């Protein structure tokens, strides 16, 4: 029977401590280096700060709408991207239908005007 190879405890210690240093130290270093939102905002020039403050409410509303739509989409059993594509298609169809009804209303208005002109009546305002 061959002799059992001795365990290299020094190698295992280095690997364990080095791995722990990488796993804990890397994210901690990144967190330490990353500037906060306030620090970034202070580095903006005054014009950008003003524009950012003006559009803040708009961006927050857009984000809230986006999150609410995602919550609604996630209630379905289908994947979110499928539900989102279906919702976009439905919205596109609704816009097309509204556009069609507006065109129809314009056409009806033009016909009424033509009929009034033929009858010799004053145009409707």
From TrEMBL:
Top-level taxon: Eukaryota
Keyword Mitochondrion in annotation: yes
One Pfam family linked to the record: CBP4
GO biological process: mitochondrial respiratory chain complex III assembly
GO terms under cellular component: mitochondrial inner membrane
Membrane topology: Single-pass membrane protein
Cellular localisation: Mitochondrion inner membrane
Major subcellular site: mitochondrion
Keywords: Chaperone, Membrane, Mitochondrion, Mitochondrion inner membrane, Transmembrane, Transmembrane helix
Similarity annotation: Belongs to the CBP4 family.
Its biological purpose: Essential for the assembly of ubiquinol-cytochrome c reductase. It has a direct effect on the correct occurrence of the Rieske protein, core 4, core 5 and apocytochrome b.
Protein name (Swiss-Prot/TrEMBL): Cytochrome b mRNA-processing protein 4
Native source species: Sordaria brevicollis
């Amino acid at each position: 029977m061959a002799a059992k190879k001795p365990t290299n405890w020094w190698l295992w210690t280095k690997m364990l401590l080095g791995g722990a240093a990488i796993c804990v130290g890397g994210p901690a270093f990144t967190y330490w280096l990353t500037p906060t939102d306030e620090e970034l905002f202070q580095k903006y020039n005054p014009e950008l700060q003003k524009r950012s403050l003006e559009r803040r409410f708009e961006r927050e509303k857009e984000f809230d709408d986006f999150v609410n739509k995602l919550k609604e989409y996630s209630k379905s059993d289908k994947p979110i991207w499928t539900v989102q594509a279906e919702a976009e298609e439905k919205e596109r169809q609704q816009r097309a239908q509204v556009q069609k009804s507006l065109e129809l209303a314009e056409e009806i208005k033009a016909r009424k005007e033509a009929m009034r002109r033929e009858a010799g009546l004053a145009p409707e305002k």
